[in-house]
């Protein structure tokens, strides 16, 4: 009987050591899966923007700017967004991509600057309402909001000030994009 108790105690100690380690591996695997889905969306967006550049404009590629308040564009439910979202396993709770501002760098700008309107500089990938959002800052993926804006959607990207325009691919509030930004800021405790 004593030997059986000793074996059970040893098994309990091993379980107490292994379970947290295994749970950590599971969490890392989920994070890796989310980053992969976010990277797929970013790559698909960049591919679509390269096509748009070849065709001559963001407006042609996106079909419609549903809500352009604060220069944000809603592509929610458009063919453009749906084609991009096919690369993700499930439709994310919120997905925002930041490109160079089309009015700043688009068709009327200096040709050497035009590519900025078709380059993905920023991504927000928020898988579920309860998960932590992922951010791409032009170089890395992180779970913390990576930038401080100097106002007017101007961000520092790789040492250069870039004016961004944000395109919503998915969001819970399709009618008011400002509400989505406020929800994201609330989740991150950003004022």
What is the H-and-E element order? HHEHEHEEEEEH
Number of helices: 5
Helix fraction by DSSP (H/I, runs of at least 4): 40-55%
**Termini Cα gap:** 63 Å
β-strand percent reads 15-25%
Q: How many DSSP E strands?
A: 7
Protein structure class = alpha+beta
The gyration radius over C-alpha positions equals: 21 Å
Largest sheet, in brief, is:
7 strands, mixed
The chain-level mean pLDDT equals 82
Mass-distribution shape: elongated
**Uncertain spans:** 59-68
Summarize the structure.
43% of the residues lie in helices and 19% in strands.
What does this structure look like?
α1 packs antiparallel against α3. The model is unreliable at 59-68 (pLDDT under 50). Strands 1, 2, 3, 4, 5, 6 and 7 form a 7-stranded mixed β-sheet that branches. Helix content is 43%, strand content 19%. β6 (154-157) and β7 form a beta hairpin. It has 5 helices and 7 strands; from the N terminus they run ααβαβαβββββα. The relative contact order is 0.15. The longest helix has 54 residues, at 2-55. By secondary structure, it is α+β, with helices and mostly antiparallel strands.
Descriptive labels:
7-stranded mixed beta sheet; 7 strands; 191 residues; alpha+beta
Secondary structure layout plus pairing:
Blueprint: H1 2-55, H2 58-62, E1 73-74, H3 79-85, E2 94-100, H4 102-105, E3 120-126, E4 134-136, E5 141-142, E6 154-157, E7 160-170, H5 177-188
Parallel strand pairs: 1-7
Antiparallel strand pairs: 2-3, 2-7, 3-4, 4-5, 6-7
């Amino acid at each position: 009987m004593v030997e059986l108790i000793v074996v059970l105690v040893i098994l309990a100690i091993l379980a107490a050591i292994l379970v947290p380690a295994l749970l950590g591996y599971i969490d890392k695997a989920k994070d890796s899966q989310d980053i992969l889905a976010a990277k797929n969306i970013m790559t698909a967006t960049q591919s679509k923007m390269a096509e748009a550049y070849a065709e001559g404009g963001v407006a042609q590629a996106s079909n419609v700017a549903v809500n352009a308040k604060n220069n944000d564009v809603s592509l929610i439910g458009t063919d453009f967004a749906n084609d991009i979202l096919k690369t993700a396993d499930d439709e994310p709770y919120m997905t925002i991509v930041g490109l160079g501002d089309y009015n700043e760098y688009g068709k009327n700008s200096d040709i050497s600057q035009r590519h900025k309107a078709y380059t993905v500089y920023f991504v927000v990938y928020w898988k579920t309402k309860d998960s932590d959002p992922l951010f791409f800052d032009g170089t890395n993926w992180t779970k913390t909001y990576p930038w401080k804006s100097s106002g007017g959607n101007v961000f520092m990207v790789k040492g250069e000030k870039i004016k961004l325009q944000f395109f919503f691919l998915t969001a819970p509030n399709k009618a008011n994009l400002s509400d989505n930004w406020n929800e994201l800021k609330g989740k991150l405790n950003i004022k």
